[in-house]
Amino acid sequence: MPGWDYLSYAYHGDDGKLFCSKGYGNTYGPTYTTGDTVGCGINSVTREIFFTKNGKNLGVANKTVRTDQDLYPIVGIRSFGGLVRVNFGQQPFVYDVTDDLKKLPIQRQTALELNQWLFELNGYSNDNEDSLLDSDSSISHRFNKSDTSSEAEF
Fold first, then answer.
1. How many CB atoms lie within 10 A of CB 30?
2. Which residues are in the B30.2/SPRY domain (predicted)?
3. Separation between Cα atoms, residue 111 and residue 45, nearest integer Å
4. DSSP E strand boundaries for 14-148
5. Shortest CA distance to 88 belongs to which of 79, 77, 98, 75?
6. Using one digit for the tens of pLDDT, what is the confidence trace for 3-17?
């Protein structure tokens, strides 16, 4: 189960709890269901992970994310035949991180912009969703450690 396994983090829709490498969760945010858009972001400078629901940041979920290793996205779903649409940046995210970047000191903004630039070299450009590079740098099954966000629509 996402969030129960070591070094995994999950925001569960059935109870709104946050799970961080343990079989029990802590109160975090509202529940979510069909029609909601849930996002996940990582600030690689502060090592913080956050989740969003329908474009609203729910706050810091964890402050000890391992940004020195590759990160792998996972979505858990309990309904048979359920459908999930995932956005790894090929379309604009519902949550706009721009305001958060403006709140950071300039050196942190530069580091985050550099991380975005590195990710664009590794897989895609926000300016052109058709600019995926060759299959050796595919982002369809894993995040590069410099990626910072993703969203899933339920």
1. 11
2. 1-93
3. 7
4. 17-20, 26-27, 37-43, 48-53, 56-62, 85-87
5. 75
6. 999 889 999 999 999
